[in-house]
Fold these 2 entries.
Entry 1:
Amino acid sequence: MVPAVTSRVDSAKALVAAASREFGDSLAVLTSFQREGVVIIDLVMQAEIRVPVMTIDTGRLPAATLEMIETIEARYGITVERILPDPNEVAAMVSQHGRDLFYEGIAQRSLCCNVRKVRPLARRMAGMAAYFTGLRREQSESRAAVEAVDRTGSPVRISPLADWTAEDVAAYSLAQGLPEHPLYSAGYTSIGCDPCTRAVNPGEDERAGRWWWETDADKECGLHFSPDGRVERTVDVFLRDVLTQAGSAKQGLSE
Ligand code: SF4
């Protein structure tokens, strides 16, 4: 019997190739250098698809992630594109709410993710047709319905590992000798910004270490899934004030 991971690898490779045929140059890899992201980069590089590999450098990344960027650049001979937040928007947000505003509530945390991640990505992706992510359904409840190809938004989101298990990812990584983010060996199972991520305890959800002080919110930053309506409205109010002070256009409040 063919092991499941083999067929999933074949399916992922087929999807990567199909995406390249459909979207050509208007395609990118978006990664934060977790295990899944490194698998995606490897699949794309092995297929010799020359599309930009991008990461969002929020300004709050752990040093180990910055090391991973260099490791990936050296392994594949590429330059990772760093998507940066607007410095004026960051300055306005920090002056209004403080640098560590995310500990104050879900709306403040969403504001920070919006300014440091969602808006910079939306600016960079404007006009782009599609991007690859390493999302897997098994990662959390909020990701349980992830489609391999999600055409509901723009750009199209392609998740070749949507049906992979954590064991599939580990097996592929081992087989290909892929580099691993150093924080995994410190007990992390999901890795984001330094102040918002911790190691997890045995038996905890894979994303339990993200914004661990929040008890009733999805462990999502708004890049792939929107916060609920009540939080979204509060974030919009905060964001309007930030953009006014920053002198940014009012557009993008619901990006
Ligand atoms: Fe801000 Fe934390 Fe979101 Fe990073 S993960 S953008 S520091 S709230």
Entry 2:
Amino acid sequence: MLILISDAFDATLPEKLTKYGEVTDDKTRQAEAEIILVRSKTKVTKEYIDSSPKLKYIIRGGVGLDNIDLKYAQEKGIKVDNTAEASTTAVAELAFALIIALPNHITQADKSMREGKWLKKELKRTELFGKTLGILGMGRIGTALAMRAQAFRMKVLAWHPDVFFSDFAEIRPTMKEVMEESDYLSLHMPLIESTKGIINKKTLSYCKDGAYMVNTGRGPCVVEEDIVEALKSGKLAGFATDVWASDPPQDSPLFDAPHTIFTPHIGASTQENMIRIGIVVDQLIDEYIKRKQK
Ligand code: NAD
């Protein structure tokens, strides 16, 4: 059995998986692979599946499954799993790091110091203490972020289509209500049909003037042009994003917008998470093989 590791995983994983069969990262051997491990880079489209005749099992190291044609995989009898639990801490910490960095002008202050400027008067900070954080998508990551925000004494609100109670946030029945009340908004929704472009000109108009927004969910959940307009008009005081319309972004209008912080889709990329993902991948392959042998 050939296991193809198509994207970046923990460096020790290939060695650990050799107990199950041959392990390679040589993508030219895709047609021979029974199990393919992907993160977000490999796009498992219909064409990809058609060019993988031996493929029986796709494991996505991470959370979203939006880079996999799930319907076609199911039609072909290919099992698909992810390692959903593993990435929660890593993404929540990045979201919170961006929430702290925006009102403290960390990137701007650093850049200006390197340019020999002294912006002591110009860089006016504001505190998170006592402010309201609105979480859109109160799943695992949203909940982990809420706990961190509570420690900073923020008031935490959340909207989620099928969560009605939380120990860590006041749940509001609509996204609009959360957006209207929040000083900070953090996006943690999956990319599905109903969330594509959900943050757009109309929904941005619900925001308080001067709200901050952070997106560590999925890039296409926001309409980038509308975010740029909101930043230029001052509707948004700042926007930080880890996720993009494509990885890497091609000609994003966000690069010309003021008050932004960008990271290259590194939400899940902590050393600790890579190890956790490896542990779950190992377990999943073990279970797959045991089922096959029954
Ligand atoms: P989760 O499944 O625990 O939470 C997401 C929740 O959103 C789900 O419970 C789902 O019910 C809910 N939801 C479904 N439809 C919705 C809708 N229309 N509007 C709002 N919410 C809806 O997932 P999670 O582990 O918290 O991850 C959340 C998202 O974060 C993932 O889907 C993924 O896109 C993103 N993510 C990003 C990175 C990164 O590197 N930046 C890493 C991991 C995950």
